[in-house]
């Protein structure tokens, strides 16, 4: 079945199986930033933005996304560059497998919460698991990104 | 999860007919839970064109469309102002935001999940559920129904009642199912209390409610209250906790919850 | 130092975040066959009959492999140096299946759906045996898990499969029984640790293809590319020269990717079909069918006099290696060798025990590698002794713990599977770590507990730890530095970056030595064709071993540069001075820049490629040390715990990159707290792992620990590159004991098994009340 959507600001048509997930579709078409961590909506590594909202691509059926706007870090380079900058400064990068997903969640948070408290930040990002960093460096990087005047 | 056919419903009637056309046809909510439990589906029925994702209000009720996501309800200011943030508090630790942007109210209610963090709060808010064929019934009645309906959940109706709330989810990490959850709501009339993940599905603690609502000096009745609770509701064992521990949690948070909703009386 | 000890951002972090192809699966050929494995539903069974005809006939299926179709040559997947201290007790596929999730057969098909379909069409008839699920009854059990005759040990490790013993060990310094008898106080306790899961974010992933030379090219998410190449060559009997293993970015390893997982089957599929193939473990497979930490029962006896002087330590461990003996002996030995030397002033010490097979998910390497298990037991016991003696547990430690310039006889006796190496502690700032941590946590105000409200208590607890820096005389690393035109360098290293940041810190070491900046050092690592050898990312070896190799290579490069500059300036080499950019000579006014020199070397005169290679192996393993302090808030009625703060003060020598070092410590702390408090491992009665996904196996989230406070002691290890020791594992060791001690300090109950859950504490309190 053909699904038409906007992927990273370009209209795309995908011929998909009924049970194909967005994660599968994206990776099949070379969007390699989107990672498979658990394929069971538990870890957040596959996070993408659908109509601006962070969602788990491993659990979205592509066939349901007709006319939706999907954004991955490939389509958000400038903003992710900034987030990456602060991750670098805080030493928050380790293996990086969760980073494209968490970057999108961080961006979405900045769009939807004004001046979030520490608790609100952590609550917003809690679904993006990280086994490397101990979370604190990431948290500090997020704080700096949120304060970014740009 | 394998899906043979995908059907985008054009009306509730259409959805209902397709649902009944085969025993392995299923409604898609957010399909998160479905993905965990269903290996193969004949026809997946998508309700997204039926305008069921809105949250509306009347004089007396909030009406939550069954396709509204958990995050949408959690961030619905009016609803949460009325219920003293009970809904928001109960949902904040169901996985992450990306998850709650997909999981739906309908899918969360109709499965009557024992672990649900939402059913208890909806019970104490006296919520009603509206089905396409079966019509409206109280959530409590629905939870007590023996058979799983082959019907479509259209909306949840939450009466507009102001009051004080208390919610506690005891869990291992913040992303786990509850060992036990407790929801309380004190309206002008009464205190209502529900326990979920006992590990049975959420239920009102009616005997305890009776005592507290009929006894002005409840502090002297702590023992009676706790005994009534433990006698009425069954607490048991599962992977996440034992009966003994659940009973301890239940009595601790019964008292603390009451103290809090009483104390926060404004 | 200009580059080392500076907070340089990870060199690859941003590129990964921006979404560039980076990880193994990103490099799989688009038309790869999908390899899937049929896994055993039984904990212990023999395959009586297996019929794969229907599966083979399914359109889209390229190949089906059973134990009839694969070479039968015992090997170990452990991913260690050669000869391995792990028994060769595994076959690519075998007629026996030894745990729920063990490999029965493999299929390769054009897509995932077809592969899944094919698995369902395989008919297997099993003869099911009584499984060994309780490791305490494994020795001499009626069921023998490895009855096959062609398996063996590589050198004596106590391998006795007939009694389900994978390994055993005994060492004793002086007569421990006698020493204990003479002690005024003897403390005895038994501790249990669980089969923690690595739960790295990237599942085990591998893909393969043949290149134009018909060589097998493998991309693998591995910590040990060179071992992978060797082990595939040995087990599949193909010349090692026909194999190339490339390790791209790896999404976390923690020891779980030291071993081989899908590599054998994917290689076989590609070799047989000549087609590219790939395998990505499902999350369930990661939990169920890769590796866990070795669960252990640890019996500790401490003997002391009434002043608190420790006299004797006796430690017996029973370790559960699961279905296969990977890392069986060595993890077990590290539980002693990286714990007991901390109390080096005892008169007598004994360490002994057995490692047994059970019908469970195999155990293997895992950050901490035995030390975390041993640490939990010994550091809990030390606190218990302190309470018995009514001495502050910190004071007791200070009286007895190892100090700079001291040694322990254990270093010489116990290595990893072999004899050890005697060494003095040239750097040991443990005393500073303890004092500083005590201040940072506010010990004097908070020990043992403070009542916060009717319901809540706050308390503190602590533990000390040591680890190692590589395995002496075994682990080796090598680095090659190549000068390019215009004067930038390539640094090629065998060392394996799995997210810990080794590419970054090795570039820093090279840049520091070459007096340049990190952007002028282009790193390429872990490609068995293109980079020099390295044993891999394990045993906390990379900074110390590979870092020294890089340092040596850089010094050689400096010599070559000076020689070339001398030639160009027509002066004596000894007269050359180089500041990283400019060559000057005391003999001449003329100068030449590095850029000019490089261009001259490649385009103009005396043309020559400059490359320098350095190799290093340790002759000792200088331990990093740390003191860990936890502050918790605990509910008096429900025993729910909030971790308010974890203070780590670490002596890792020079932190080459303080921010990345801090990340190593903090990541270790959280993973250790996971083991201490959150990560429950559950098996069904039939031996199926129930906690086999993230719904049922809970790792700590951003909301579960309030604060981490991390500092480094001022320390300079002469033998390390720019004074560095190691920092990859040390962070994980202290949380279990520190938490157990804090819980005791709060409520007076001692939890002797991990994880320390609220419910366990509650039950213990009930027990005490009931007595
Ligand atoms: C990994 C994970 C962790 C979770 N953790 C928690 C937790 O901690 N606490 C908690 O409370 N919950 C938790 N949940 C449950 C979650 O919050 C949702 O309740 C659940 O996913 C169902 O919502 P859904 O929209 O995904 O429903 P679906 O999976 O789409 O549907 C579930 C069932 O309801 C049917 N259905 C859906 N919508 C309708 C409708 N309108 N009419 C009729 N039938 C319908 C479907 O056919 C299906 O049978 C978790 C779920 C997962 C997958």
What are the main properties of this structure?
heterotrimer; A: 150 residues; alpha+beta; Ubiquitin-like (UB roll); DNA polymerase, domain 1; 5-stranded mixed beta sheet; 5 helices; 15% strand; globular; B: 266 residues; Uridine Diphospho-n-acetylenolpyruvylglucosamine Reductase, domain 2; Uridine Diphospho-n-acetylenolpyruvylglucosamine Reductase, domain 3; Enolase-like, domain 1; 4-stranded antiparallel beta sheet; 12 strands; binds flavin-adenine dinucleotide
Global Rg of chain A = 15 Å
- Unreliable segments of chain A (pLDDT under 50, ≥5 consecutive)? none
How many DSSP H or I helices of chain C?
19
Helical content of chain C stands at 25-40%
Tell me the name of the CATH homologous superfamily of the largest domain in chain C: Aldehyde oxidase/xanthine dehydrogenase, molybdopterin binding domain
What is Rg of chain C?
27 Å
CATH topology of the largest domain in chain C: Aldehyde Oxidoreductase, domain 4
Gap from first CA to last CA of chain A = 42 Å
Continuous helix count of chain A: 5
Globally, the shape of chain A reads globular
Strand tally of chain C is 27
Give the averaged pLDDT of chain A, no decimals. 96
Oligomeric composition of the shown chains: heterotrimer
Shape of chain C: globular
Number of domains of chain C: 3
Helix/strand order of chain A: EEHEEEHHHH
CATH class type of the largest domain in chain A: Alpha Beta
**Average pLDDT value of chain C?**
97
What is the end-to-end distance of chain C? 62 Å
Percent of residues in helices of chain A: 25-40%
Give the name of the CATH superfamily of the largest domain in chain A.
Answer: Beta-grasp domain
Explain this structure.
The complex is a heterotrimer of chains A (150), B (266) and C (771). Chain A has 150 residues and is of the alpha+beta class. Chain A is built from 5 helices and 5 strands, in the order ββαβββαααα. Chain A has 2 domains: 2-74, Roll (Ubiquitin-like (UB roll)); 76-146, [2Fe-2S]-binding domain (DNA polymerase, domain 1, Orthogonal Bundle), CATH 1.10.150. By secondary structure, chain B is of the alpha+beta class. Chain B has helices spanning 12-21, 32-37, 70-74, 77-82, 86-91, 97-100, 105-110, 119-124, 139-144, 206-214, 222-232, 243-263; strands at residues 2-8, 25-28, 40-46, 55-57, 61-65, 128-131, 135-138, 153-159, 164-171, 178-186, 191-196, 203-204. In chain B, α10 (206-214) packs antiparallel against α11 (222-232) and α11 packs across α12. The longest helix of chain B has 21 residues, at 243-263. The termini of chain B are far apart. With 771 residues, chain C is of the alpha+beta class. Chain C folds into 3 domains: 13-129 and 201-252 and 257-289, Aldehyde Oxidoreductase, domain 3 (Alpha-Beta Complex); 296-471 and 620-770, Aldehyde Oxidoreductase, domain 4 (2-Layer Sandwich), CATH 3.30.365.10; 476-617, Aldehyde oxidase/xanthine dehydrogenase, molybdopterin binding domain (Aldehyde Oxidoreductase, domain 4). Chain C is 27% helix and 24% strand. In chain C, the strands form 6 sheets. Chain C has a 7-stranded mixed beta sheet with strand order 3-5-1-12-9-10-11, with helices on both faces. A 5-stranded mixed beta sheet of chain C has the order 7-15-14-13-8. A 5-stranded mixed beta sheet of chain C has the order 16-17-25-26-27. The chains are: A alpha+beta (150), B alpha+beta (266), C alpha+beta (771). Chains in contact: A-B, A-C, B-C. At the B-C interface, α12 of B face α19 of C. Bound molecules: flavin-adenine dinucleotide (FAD). Flavin-adenine dinucleotide is lined by residues 26-34, 36, 66, 94-95, 103-104, 106-108, 110-111, 115-118, 152-153, 177 of chain B.
């Amino acid at each position: 079945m053909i699904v038409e959507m906007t992927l990273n600001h370009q209209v795309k048509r995908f011929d998909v199986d009924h049970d194909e997930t967005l994660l599968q579709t994206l990776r099949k078409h070379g969007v390699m930033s989107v990672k498979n961590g658990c394929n069971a909506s538990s870890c957040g590594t596959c996070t993408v933005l659908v109509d601006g909202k962070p969602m788990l691509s491993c659990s979205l059926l592509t066939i349901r996304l007709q006319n939706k706007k999907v954004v991955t870090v490939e389509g958000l380079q400038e903003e992710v560059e900034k987030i990456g900058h602060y991750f670098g400064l805080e030493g928050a990068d380790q293996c990086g497998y969760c980073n494209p997903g968490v970057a999108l969640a961080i961006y979405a948070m900045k769009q939807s919460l004004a001046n979030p408290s520490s608790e609100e930040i952590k609550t917003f990002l809690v679904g993006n698991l990280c086994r490397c960093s101990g979370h604190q460096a990431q948290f500090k990087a997020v704080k700096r990104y949120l304060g970014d005047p740009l | 999860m394998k899906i043979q056919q995908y059907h985008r419903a054009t009306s509730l009637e259409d959805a209902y007919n397709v649902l009944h056309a085969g025993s392995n046809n299923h409604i898609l909510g957010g399909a998160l839970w479905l993905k965990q439990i269903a290996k193969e589906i004949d026809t997946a029925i998508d309700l997204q064109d039926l305008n069921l994702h809105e949250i509306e209000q009347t004089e007396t009720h909030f009406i939550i469309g069954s396709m509204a996501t958990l995050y949408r309800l959690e961030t619905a200011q009016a609803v949460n102002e009325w219920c003293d943030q009970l809904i928001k508090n109960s949902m904040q630790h169901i996985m992450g935001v990306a998850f709650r942007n997909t999981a739906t109210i309908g899918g969360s209610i109709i499965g009557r999940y024992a672990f649900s963090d939402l059913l208890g709060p909806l019970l104490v808010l006296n919520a009603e559920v509206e089905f396409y064929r079966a019509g409206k019934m109280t959530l409590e009645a629905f939870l007590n129904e023996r058979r799983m309906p082959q019907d479509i959940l259209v909306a949840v109706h939450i009466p507009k009642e102001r009051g004080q709330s208390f919610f506690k989810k005891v869990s291992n990490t913040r992303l786990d199912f509850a060992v036990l959850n407790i929801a309380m709501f004190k309206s002008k009339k009464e205190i209502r209390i529900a326990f979920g993940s006992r590990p049975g599905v959420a239920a009102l603690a009616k005997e305890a409610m009776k005592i507290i609502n009929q006894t002005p000096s409840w502090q002297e009745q702590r023992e009676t209250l706790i005994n009534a609770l433990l006698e009425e509701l069954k607490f048991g064992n599962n992977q996440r906790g034992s009966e003994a521990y659940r009973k301890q949690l239940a009595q601790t948070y019964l008292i603390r919850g009451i103290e809090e909703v009483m104390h926060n009386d404004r | 130092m200009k580059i080392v000890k500076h907070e340089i951002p990870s060199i690859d972090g941003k590129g990964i975040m921006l979404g560039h192809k980076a990880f193994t699966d990103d490099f799989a050929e688009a038309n790869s066959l999908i390899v899937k494995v049929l896994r055993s539903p039984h904990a212990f069974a023999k395959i009586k009959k297996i019929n794969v005809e229907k599966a083979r006939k399914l359109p889209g299926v390229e190949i089906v492999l059973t134990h009839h179709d694969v070479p039968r040559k015992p090997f170990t997947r452990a991913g260690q140096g050669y000869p391995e201290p792990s028994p060769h007790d595994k076959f690519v596929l075998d007629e026996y299946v030894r745990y729920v999730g063990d490999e029965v057969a493999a299929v390769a098909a054009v897509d995932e759906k077809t592969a899944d379909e094919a698995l369902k069409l395989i008919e297997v008839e099993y003869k099911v045996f009584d499984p060994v699920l309780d490791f305490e009854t494994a020795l001499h059990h009626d069921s023998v898990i490895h009855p096959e005759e062609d398996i063996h040990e590589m050198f004596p490790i106590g391998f006795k499969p007939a009694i389900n013993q994978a390994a055993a060990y005994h060492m004793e310094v002086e007569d421990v029984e006698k020493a204990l008898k003479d002690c005024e106080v003897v403390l005895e306790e038994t501790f249990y640790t669980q089969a923690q899961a690595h739960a790295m974010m990237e599942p085990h992933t591998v893909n393969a293809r043949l290149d134009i030379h018909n060589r097998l090219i493998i991309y693998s998410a591995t910590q040990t590319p060179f071992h992978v190449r060797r082990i595939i060559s040995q087990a599949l009997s193909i010349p090692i020269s026909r194999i190339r293993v490339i390790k791209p970015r790896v999404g976390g390893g923690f020891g779980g990717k030291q071993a081989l997982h899908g590599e054998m089957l994917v290689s076989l599929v590609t070799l047989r079909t000549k087609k590219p193939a790939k395998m990505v473990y499902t999350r369930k497979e990661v939990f169920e069918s890769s590796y866990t930490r070795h669960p252990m029962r640890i019996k500790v006896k401490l003997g002391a006099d009434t002043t608190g002087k420790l006299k004797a330590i006796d430690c017996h461990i029973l370790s559960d290696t699961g279905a296969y003996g990977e890392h069986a002996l060595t993890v077990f030995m590290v539980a002693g060798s990286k714990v007991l030397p901390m109390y080096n002033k005892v008169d007598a010490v004994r360490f002994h025990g057995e490692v047994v097979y059970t019908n469970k998910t195999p155990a293997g390497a895992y950050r901490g590698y035995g030390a975390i298990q041993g640490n939990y037991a010994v550091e809990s016991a030390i606190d218990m002794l302190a309470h018995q003696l009514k001495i502050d547990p910190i004071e007791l430690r200070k009286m007895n713990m190892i100090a700079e310039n001291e040694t322990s006889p254990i270093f010489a006796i116990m290595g990893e599977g072999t004899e050890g190496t005697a060494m003095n502690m040239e750097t040991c700032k443990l005393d500073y770590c303890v004092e500083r941590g005590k201040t940072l946590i506010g010990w004097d105000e908070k020990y043992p507990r403070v009542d916060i409200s009717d319901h809540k208590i706050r308390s503190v607890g602590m533990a000390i730890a040591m680890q190692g820096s590589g395995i002496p005389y075994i682990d080796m690393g090598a680095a090659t530095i190549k000068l390019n035109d215009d004067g930038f360098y390539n640094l090629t290293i065998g060392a394996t970056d799995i997210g810990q940041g080794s590419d970054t810190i090795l570039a820093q070491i090279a840049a520091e030595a070459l007096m340049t900046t990190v952007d002028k050092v282009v790193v390429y690592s872990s490609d068995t064709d293109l980079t020099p050898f390295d044993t891999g990312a394990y045993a906390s070896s990379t900074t110390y071993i590979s870092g020294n190799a890089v340092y040596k290579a850089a010094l050689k490069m400096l010599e070559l540069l000076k020689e070339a500059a001398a030639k160009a300036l027509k002066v004596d080499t000894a007269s050359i001075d180089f500041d990283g950019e400019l060559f000057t000579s005391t003999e001449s006014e003329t100068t030449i820049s590095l850029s000019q020199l490089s261009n001259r070397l490649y385009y103009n005169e005396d043309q020559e490629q400059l490359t320098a290679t350095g190799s290093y192996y340790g002759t000792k393993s200088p331990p990093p040390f740390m003191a860990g302090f936890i502050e918790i808030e605990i509910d008096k009625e429900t025993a729910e715990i909030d971790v308010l703060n974890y203070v780590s003060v670490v002596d890792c020598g020079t932190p080459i990159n303080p921010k990345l070092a801090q990340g190593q410590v903090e990541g270790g702390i959280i993973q250790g707290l996971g083991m201490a408090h959150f990560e429950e491992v559950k098996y069904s009665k039939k031996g199926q792992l129930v906690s086999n996904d993230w719904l049922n196996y809970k790792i700590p989230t951003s909301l579960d620990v309030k604060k981490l406070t991390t500092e480094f002691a001022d320390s300079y290890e002469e033998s390390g590159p720019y004074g560095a020791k190691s920092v990859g594992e040390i962070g994980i060791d202290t949380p279990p004991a520190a938490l157990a001690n804090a819980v005791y300090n709060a409520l007076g109950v001692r939890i002797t098994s991990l994880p320390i859950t609220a419910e366990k504490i509650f039950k213990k309190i009930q027990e005490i009340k009931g007595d």
